[in-house]
Amino acid sequence: SHEKICRYIARESELVVVSVGYRLAPEHKYPAAYEDCLNATIHFMKNIEHYGVDPARIIICGDSAGGNLAAAVSQTLAGRSDLPRLRAQILIYPGLQALDFNLPSYQQNRGVPLLFRERAAFFALQYLNGDALHMQEVLEGSHIPPDMRLKYRKWVSPD
Hints:
The protein has eight helices and two strands; from the N terminus they run H-H-E-H-E-H-H-H-H-H. By secondary structure, the chain is mainly alpha-helical.
């Protein structure tokens, strides 16, 4: 789905672009997409000499759900000494936080097309377990136990 933009980036930047086709939800639940992206990235990095790529210039990028996957893969690879070190990650409107759909950014943008707040919650549920049975609880924030909310308040607090 991103072939044209990948070709454009490769042509304009004179860089090698590897686009990973990963399994999609709801047919393939978490962690299928993450595993596909991680395995493809590791394979590329272990065989980098075959692609004529400078190992010091590897950048990982993704948009939307792919931004989430790029961030997760980057974090996983950060401590690996057996692979080249990533130079950077580029995250384009990444889906990084699906814990609380009542934070200011979700509230301020709740009616902004294309990805309405309800649709973001729906896609998060599809990605995690393949159904939207608990959509209302997720939108209300009642799906998070109080002790977990307290534990992660540093990262998901509106303050």
